[in-house]
Every structure is written in C-alpha cells, then in structure tokens.
Amino acid sequence: MPDDKILVVEDDANLQETLKYNLHKEGYDVATASDGEQALEVARKEKPALIILDIMLPKLNGFEVCRILRKEMTVPILMLTAKVDETDKIVGLEIGADDYMTKPFSIRELLARVRAMLRRAKMVEAPSATGLTSIKIGDIEIETARHRASLASKELELSPKEFDLLAFLVRNKGLVFSREQLLEKVWGYDFAGDTRTVDVHIRWLRQKIEADPSQPKYLVTVRGTGYKLEG
Q: CA 14, CA 2: separation in Å to the nearest integer?
C-alpha cells in the first residue's frame, strides 16, 4: 500500500471529505487545507508528495498558491477547476501545475491520475537505469540526475512536467509521438486524457528553447501525427 502524503486543498467541505476518504482508502496519508493561506502553511510544513489544488479558494486562489509553491518546491500539482473556461486550464498549466481536472470528475479517474503523477515523480527521482546522467542535443543539455536542463549552457527554468516532457523527447530524439502516446509516456496515463495538456506544455517549451517558437528548430510538429525532437 502507498504511504505518500497528499495535500488536498479544497474549500468545499463535502468534496474535501470525499477526496480525503477515497485517498485514505488507497493507503495515502492525507493532509487538508481549506483556503490558500492555509495551503501554503501546510505544504511548507508537511512537504507532501503531491498536491490536489482547487482554483476557487478563499484568501488566496489556487493560481496564486501554485505560483508561490512553484518558486519553493517541485511537488506535482493537480489543479481542480469548476469552470469550463479553457483560459483557466491554460493559466494553471502555464504557472506550473502538472495537470488539471474539471469538476465534476470521476473519483476513479482522479485516483488514476494521482497514481500516475506519483509514479512519474518517483521515476524522475530514481537514478538513471542506463547510467546516463547527461544528454546533449544541439545546444540543449539534460542532466537527469540533477533534474536540470540548459540551453547554450544557460539553465532553463522549467516546471517539473516541462522537464519530464523535454527529457523524454531528448532521450527519443527523432522519434515521432502522438499526443496520446506522450500522455501515456510522460504523464503516465493509461486512459484517454485531455491532449490539450500536451499542446500547452509543448507551446511553453518552445517559448523557452526556440529562437523563434513559430518556426521551431527542436520541437517539431509532424502534421496529423504529433511531435518529435530534432537537433
């Protein structure tokens, strides 16, 4: 049984209790917070392995909490939104959330995503099975052991999921992957997820590694198929 600590940040008491109950059933240690300020306090104290973070919160909203936490820790963050507005989802990803789910959602799917996110986080922390700790493609260098990436020797400021995606594509240089394959390989989802998550992360990686993101040199779109990394 897992023993990872998960922080649930949700001001709806019924939903908070539902999430806590189901996560406990899966064997997780669960901490909770009901507003943004409390979320920061608990996260700093408990050092959770993963945070489930609602957007609409008292005191500090989820965007503000995510923005602050991203400056302090690399914990995976799954954002919850009651809004169907695409802007909310994109903003969440842009400020460093690893993924999002729109309410109402299936508890079964949420638990699957939690398992996948934790599994990926542990794979990143584990030593490379191949023994390769540094991979260089053109001006891009990935240091897997240190979880760092650089462009022309200048360190890139990447979210954990941006790093995972870039590292995966660097390791598989020249191979084309569909959005669904990237969801499975990088996010760890073995079910149909929202492929827009992949597109947003690709777009933001291009902003950070391409001289001209509109004409990418590294992260290339293969029309009708997906993406590949060239160098």
A: 24
